[in-house]
Amino acid sequence: MQHIEIIGNAETAAEILALTEQWGQALSHHHLAQLTQDYAEDVKVFDVASQVEDLQAYAKLWQQCFPYFGDHIQVQRRKLKIYAADTVVFLHCFSKILGDAQPSAEDVPWCRTTVGFYKEGTRWKVVHEHVSMPFDCEHQQAIYLFAEP
């Protein structure tokens, strides 16, 4: 298992890691309701190719993306770091999403991912998610990270 750096409350970080694992399992089985259950109604998602402003748009984005990845979707993460407090958590890492409709894992670039969680009552909700690639402003193009970060 890869090293995960935790800053702050270890119990809170364990809760977030469990939610992150559940999200990955829901994604792998195309279970849209489970995929979105821990997202706030007014979640803001800044994805590599789009921006969505609420939970319904987030669900629609995944419905559109499922065919691109095919069956058996999996998430890989590297350099996972969690900043955990009592009611707010930030997680960041490098990630890639793979499916059997894609070429090999080596042909899929790594993205930078940041997820912000907020505790509503007793439940954690994703309120912000940002997935990006580095960008070369001079040449106006994305920088693809193929080597393991």
Write up what this structure looks like.
The structure is a single chain. By secondary structure, the chain is an alpha+beta fold. 26% of the residues lie in helices and 41% in strands. The protein has a single domain (4-142), classed as Nuclear Transport Factor 2, Chain: A. The radius of gyration is 15 Å and the shape is globular. The two termini are 16 Å apart.
CATH class: Alpha Beta
Q: What is the assembly state of the chains in this entry?
A: single chain
Beta content comes to 35-45%
Instruction: Please tell me the overall pLDDT.
Output: 91
Keywords:
149 residues, alpha+beta, Nuclear Transport Factor 2, Chain: A, 7-stranded mixed sheet, two-stranded antiparallel ribbon
Give a short overview.
The protein is an alpha+beta fold and 149 residues long. It has a single domain (4-142), classed as Nuclear Transport Factor 2, Chain: A.
List the helices and strands and how they pair.
Elements: E1 4-8, H1 10-28, H2 32-36, E2 39-46, E3 51-52, H3 55-69, E4 74-84, E5 88-98, E6 111-120, E7 123-132, E8 135-136, E9 141-142
Parallel strand pairs: 1-4, 2-7
Antiparallel strand pairs: 2-3, 4-5, 5-6, 6-7, 8-9
